[in-house]
Amino acid sequence: MANPSTERLTKSYLAQQTDRTIATLKKILARDPIETGRVVPTADDLAIHDGRRLEATVMFLDICKFSGRPGWTEQDQETLLRILCLFFTEMIRVIEDYGGIVEKNTGDGLMAYFVRRPEDTAAVQQRALAAALTMFAAAERLINPILQRSHVDKLHFRVCMDHGPITIAKVGAARGFNGIVAIGTTANIAAKMLAVAERDTILIGTKMLEGIPTAWSREFVQLKTMETGWMYTATNVPYAFWEYTGRWKEPLI
Fold first, then answer.
1. What is the SS3 assignment for 190?
2. Which of 20, 29, 191, 209 is 20 to 30 A distant from 113 in Cα terms?
3. pLDDT at residue 106 above 60?
4. C-alpha angle with apex 188: 132 to 48, nearest 5 degrees?
5. Which burial class, exposed, middle or buried, applies to 144 when counting CB atoms under 10 A from its CB (0-12, 13-18, 19+)?
6. Between helices 74-97 and 121-138, what is the axis angle to 10°?
7. If DSSP codes are grouped into helix, strand and coil, which group holds residue 160?
8. Cα(22)–Cα(238) distance, integer angstroms
9. H-helix or E-strand containing 134?
10. Hey, which residues does 59 pair with through a beta bridge?
11. By C-alpha distance, which of 172, 166, 188, 179 is closest to 40?
């Protein structure tokens, strides 16, 4: 067996790599310009290297410290599987009930989009926020009580969202692994929020805040941080993150 620290790539393999890279570049350059749409494309809708430009609310959900739960034994892993199945089955249903589309499950988290129907941008943002509130209500009133009755520690999670233009694209190899990704600052910001958000919180970006009704933001929104590392390019003003503290009230009987 070759030793990677001492062996070198063969000239024939390097030649194959060169040919592949040039062929891929030609395909990318020959691709038509990205179209703007209003529907989130599926993997079947897009060819490799193709994409569609959308305006959307991007949501990330992350279970806090899930990797710290015991997972060595078969029983531990069985318990983790049951927890994830119970939690994500309902979280995905909630997102779909509010018109969202789940793009990926990351094991202990997920990513989803909310796009415009025949409605304005603010309605999309409010629909995504309502989904987040419903997810927390489901965890508090349904899922965690079930876990605690089974002597399993309850789940804590965080939801981060922002709104803006993204490009949904299909990247990878035509034969083998490929998948859908979201490209753009909006998706990057929503993902980076996870490092700032504390457990059991909803964090939104400034663009998302613009779609929240004034009465809601006045009562339920507080500044989380201006030190996000993101700046408005035109004015060089820091792009802030905001915590939404409201929750659904108890349902009427």
1. helix
2. 29
3. yes
4. 105
5. middle
6. 140
7. strand
8. 40
9. helix 121-138
10. 112, 161
11. 166
**Tally of CA atoms within 13 A in the half-sphere of 95 that contains its CB:** 24
Helices (H) and strands (E) in the chain, counts: 7, 9
Overall size of the chain counted in residues: 253
Token digits for 244?
């939404």
User: Quick one: tokens of 22?
Assistant: 């040039």
Contacts of 154 (CB under 8 A, 6+ apart): 139, 144, 147, 148
Strands 202-205, 241-244: pairing is antiparallel
Query: 114 pLDDT exceeds 80?
Result: yes
Host H or E run for residue 26: helix 11-30
pLDDT digits over 179-229, tens only? Answer: 777 888 899 999 999 999 999 999 999 999 999 999 999 999 999 999 888
